[in-house]
Design brief:
Elements (H helix, E strand, L loop, with lengths): L2 H23 L4 H37 L1 H12 L18
Length: 97
Amino acid sequence: MTRKQGIFLCIAGLLLFSLLFFIIFGEHGFIDLNVFKKERDQFVQKNELLTHKNISLSIEIDRLKHDPQYIENIARQELGMVAEDELILKPQKLPQP
């Protein structure tokens, strides 16, 4: 091998090594790609959670609009309401001796 070929191979090797270095560590390189994939996976998971929450809220809205028994149940539990024909019994405290 001549001296020119050796220098050419050395320069080609350095260029390939630097290209590999920039592919792995450079801006928009392999490491950034992995970071972006992790962020994307987090966004997909968050999107799925929000989709499930939207579906459950949509079902609850529909029930509040069309299901009288559900409305009555919510009124009793959250607002403490009673029906017209019901009696409220309050226990009296006994006097302490």
